[in-house]
TrEMBL record, chain A:
UniProt keyword Lipid metabolism present: no
Keywords: Membrane, Transmembrane, Transmembrane helix
Organism: Paenibacillus phytohabitans
Pfam families (UniProt xref): GerA (PF03323)
Segments crossing the lipid bilayer: 270-292, 366-385, 397-420
Family: Belongs to the GerABKA family.
Protein name: Spore germination protein
UniProtKB/TrEMBL annotation, chain B:
Transmembrane segment boundaries: 38-60, 80-99, 119-139, 145-164, 185-204, 219-237, 266-285, 297-317, 329-351
Keywords noted in UniProt: Germination, Membrane, Transmembrane, Transmembrane helix, Transport
Protein name per UniProt: GerAB/ArcD/ProY family transporter
Top-level taxon of the source organism: Bacteria
InterPro entries (UniProt xref): Spore_GerAB
Entry keyword annotation includes Ribonucleoprotein: no
Pfam families tied to this protein: Spore_permease
Membrane topology classification: Multi-pass membrane protein
Subcellular location: Membrane
The keyword Transmembrane appears for this protein: yes
PANTHER family: SPORE GERMINATION PROTEIN A2 (PTHR34975:SF2)
Organism: Paenibacillus phytohabitans
Length: 473, 360
């Protein structure tokens, strides 16, 4: 049988493959009968000099064979493997008939900086960056254990994005790991650019408005999730790590809760759940009361409210929607513009538009207070994904209360509850620890109990090793 | 392996199924039919309902946790059972439907006198449909969350302590009532709902704790009913209580905060949660019965058809009084099923045991 000539890696074949790729670098060493081919922007220059250029400079042609015996040079006999290797940051060395790959991956990247979406007051400030190796190093340096296992997958027909699944052996439930790996392997798409995109491919119910996997930019959060028996997924070229499985209530904790005294952490956590109630119900209650249930306002307050609303020509639901949309516009503009201008837009736009709207008789003062409180409360929720989802469903509830008053509000809440109860995260209930009821988890979900009381891992992890600490004081 | 319902969730599910719209009229019925200290009549109701649950737990134990349909079909040919299944489904379906309709009519009376109540009914039915299609485990999860969203309301009873007077209870026991058999049946219907636990057997772990959940749910409901009734008897006078249409609404209207008052409207809205669970559970029970006859039909299609039928039926009674009559009459049938069904199953199990045909 004749050998498959197409599959034999030759310099000509590789150069043909990368034809019209202007960023490819091809260097010839005639005195050594060697050629190297690589993408300069994907390799670490120091490594290239140290491992190839300097030895090549010192050696004679016959010395190269000894050099290639070193383990960093991997002899490759398949053309496709050479192409993939070059794309992944390897330097392909052609010497005679043989081809060797040297892994010199080290592109330029953003240095480790603070997270902009998950800031904390106390505690570590470093955040994930776009380089998966850097992100893995941020985790590895925090978990110095051989039990931290990492599975490598590749997704995207064009992007060939590398995805790493991280778990701690003997703590994480392997069924979850297997399930997650299967879901990732089943993805058939051209490119995945971010962790946020990946979650929407692997979630249990991708059409839901609620995120079913927690995403984080913080290595300390990722490590705490791993230690709790959850699984972390890191996507190359994305600063967002995915934690799974997750529960609805998990989105209301912040790493700050653990870095501060437990009493303060508990108070903050309760405040966030209050913020959830305010976000969902404040504007809606205003609409409900001023449209249908004026009897609910005590007499003294009624006068203030009536004065505030007497010049407004619209029904309260239009007035509320107008202001809510205005707030969302300001928020979106603030998020898209550079930080300094964004802040100005936010403050000036808020005050000017708010005050002018009241003076022009387009809206009432009381509504401005309701809308502002509701917006501020939504920003208290630490997860941006969850906060955005809740702000979106708030519009639905406002419309429902505009139609049916209090019963509309209750029906909206019922709809949310029914939807939440149908959701799962990696097959486990999204409403853990309420349903299924796990009172043992409450002390690390609804409050942040002292560390001596947080002796077991969350039940949702379904870990075989639930004891996390034995200190009683 | 599908997840099983835990005892706590069974307790919550049963409690939420039992509590519903009757709570609004219960104190008045107690005063009207049983007179002074009518709340004492709740005690025999608790005993009877507990005995009924005991019968159900006997079925669970003797049947070794098998589905009640399996128990029946083991001795009686399936086609013979079809009319019985149909009857069960019809009673449960329409009973659930009327509970929903009554809730909607009261809300319409309170806040939206000019709106067509069938629009609200449609919204409630859509919610019920969304809840029922995902199966009993999701219903139980939603019921648990609904329980926590509404359970805090019972703390509002503390608000009435300053206005409570023991002397209003009077030293007389059950004087001034009338038509007590009818009253007993109506009041007992406030406890109904636990009988649906007989259909939960395939969804629970086969141990003693499973049925403990049903007892716990019933007991919690009993404690709430008794405390609410005592508060009503000590807050209103007997004559007043007899005349009030919905004493609980008047109680709630009494609550005032500096920034909000007349909360009965909002709090009545929150009673949608237990009412919704009650409606859904009766419809789920009807669905389980129909599924036995039509096993191949898709679950969501069946739910849709049943809810569409029930929605059509709910057009028939137009007024609260008419709905009340339907509920009272269906209440007799549901009470009959609550006692008759487990007794029938026990007889079948005893026959099977004698014939040595009990399957594990």
């Amino acid at each position: 049988m004749e050998p498959d000539t197409q599959n034999i890696p030759t310099l000509r074949h590789i150069l043909d493959e990368f034809d019209q790729c202007a960023d490819l670098s091809h260097r010839r060493f005639p005195e050594l009968s060697a050629d190297i081919v690589y993408f300069p922007h994907t390799v670490d220059n120091n490594l290239l000099i140290q491992e190839i250029l300097l030895p090549f400079d010192r050696l004679q042609a016959d010395g190269l064979d000894k050099l290639f015996l070193q383990s960093q040079f991997v002899e490759t006999r398949e053309s496709k493997a050479v192409v993939v290797g070059i794309l992944e940051g390897c330097v392909a060395v052609f010497h005679g008939e043989a081809v060797y790959l040297l892994d010199a991956y080290g592109p330029e990247g953003r240095s480790v900086q603070q997270s902009e979406t998950e800031t904390v007051i106390a505690g570590p400030h470093d955040a994930f960056v776009e380089s998966a190796p850097t992100n893995l190093s941020l985790i590895r340096r925090r978990i110095k254990s051989s039990h931290l296992k990492i599975i490598r997958c590749e997704i995207g027909e064009i992007s060939k994005t590398t995805v790493y699944i991280l778990y701690i052996k003997d703590i994480a439930n392997l069924k979850y790991v297997q399930d997650l790996q299967n879901r990732i392997n089943r993805i058939e798409t051209d490119a995945i650019n971010d962790g946020g995109t990946l979650t929407q491919f692997i979630e249990d119910m991708p059409n839901s408005v609620f995120p079913q996997f927690l995403t984080t930019e913080r290595p300390d959060v990722a490590v705490s999730k791993l230690a709790a028996g959850r699984i972390i997924t890191i996507v190359d070229n994305s600063p967002t790590a995915i934690s799974a499985p997750s529960s609805f209530f998990e989105f209301f904790s912040s790493p700050d809760d653990y870095y501060q005294r437990w009493a303060l952490g508990t108070a903050l956590r309760l405040l966030r759940f209050l913020a959830l109630v305010i976000t969902i119900s404040f504007t809606a209650m205003y609409v409900s009361v001023t449209t249908f249930h004026y009897e609910m306002i005590p007499e003294a307050l009624l006068r203030t409210l009536a004065e505030s609303r007497n010049r407004v020509p619209f029904p309260p639901v239009y007035e509320a929607l107008l202001m809510e949309i205005m707030i969302e516009l300001l928020r979106e503009a603030g998020a898209r513009l550079p930080t300094k201008i964004g802040q100005t837009i936010g403050i000036v736009g808020g005050i000017v538009i708010g005050q002018a709207a009241v003076q022009a008789g387009l809206t009432s003062n009381v509504l401005i207070i309701a809308v502002a409180s509701s917006a501020i409360a939504s920003f208290v929720i630490p997860s941006y994904m969850m906060s955005a989802s809740i702000r979106l469903i708030r519009f639905g509830i406002i419309i429902l209360t505009g139609i049916w008053g209090n019963i509309g509000l209750v029906m909206g809440i019922a709809l949310i509850v029914i939807h939440l109860s149908n959701l799962t995260s990696l097959g486990s209930s999204y409403l853990t620890p309420i349903a299924p009821m796990k009172t043992g988890d409450w002390k690390d979900v609804f409050i942040r109990a002292p560390f001596s009381k947080l002796s077991s891992r969350p039940s949702q992890s379904k870990t075989m090793n639930s004891i996390r600490q034995k200190n009683k004081k | 392996m599908p997840e099983k319902l835990r005892p706590f969730h069974i307790a919550v599910l049963m409690h939420m199924t039992q509590s519903g719209i009757v709570i609004f009229t219960l104190p008045r019925n107690l005063a009207d039919y049983f007179g002074t200290n009518g709340w004492l009549f709740l005690v025999p109701c608790i005993v009877v309902s507990t005995f009924n649950i005991y019968l159900i737990s006997l079925v669970f134990r003797l049947g070794q946790g098998r589905s009640v349909f399996e128990i029946m079909e083991q001795t009686i040919p399936r086609p013979v059972l079809y009319p019985f299944y149909g009857g069960l489904a019809a009673v449960w379906l329409v009973f659930g439907c009327m509970i929903g309709k009554k809730y909607v009519l009261i809300f319409q009376m309170l806040s939206f006198p000019t709106t067509n109540p069938m629009v609200f009914k449609l919204a409630v039915d859509i919610l019920a449909f969304l809840m029922i299609t995902k199966g009993i485990y999701s219903i139980s999860k939603a019921a648990t969350l609904f329980f926590w969203l509404s359970a805090w309301m019972y703390l509002l009873m503390l608000w009435f302590f300053p206005a409570f007077r023991w002397e209003r209870l009077t030293p007389f026991i059950l004087k001034g009532g009338h038509n007590q058999f009818k009253g007993a049946m109506e009041i007992y219907s406030a406890f109904l709902g636990y009988e649906l636990s007989i259909l939960l057997f395939p969804y629970v772990n086969k141990n003693k704790k499973a049925m403990a959940g049903v007892y716990a749910g019933n007991l919690y409901l009993a404690v709430l009913y008794i405390s609410l009734a005592i508060i009503c008897f000590g807050f209103f006078s007997l004559g007043q209580l007899k005349k009030l249409l919905y004493p609980l609404l008047d109680l709630l209207a009494y609550i005032q905060f500096p920034f909000i008052e007349r909360l009965e409207n909002l709090l009545y809205g929150l009673f949608l949660f237990p009412v919704l669970v009650t409606v859904v559970m009766y419809w789920w029970a009807a669905q389980e019965s129909v599924r036995r006859m039509l096993p191949r039909i898709k679950l969501s299609v069946l739910s849709f058809l049943l809810i569409a039928i029930s929605y059509s039926i709910s057009f028939i009674p137009k007024t609260l009084d008419a709905v009340g009559v339907w509920i009272t009459n269906l209440g007799y049938a549901v009470t009959g099923i609550a006692f008759g069904f487990p007794v029938l199953l026990l007889l079948l199990l005893l026959i099977q045991r004698k014939g040595g045909e009990v399957r594990a």
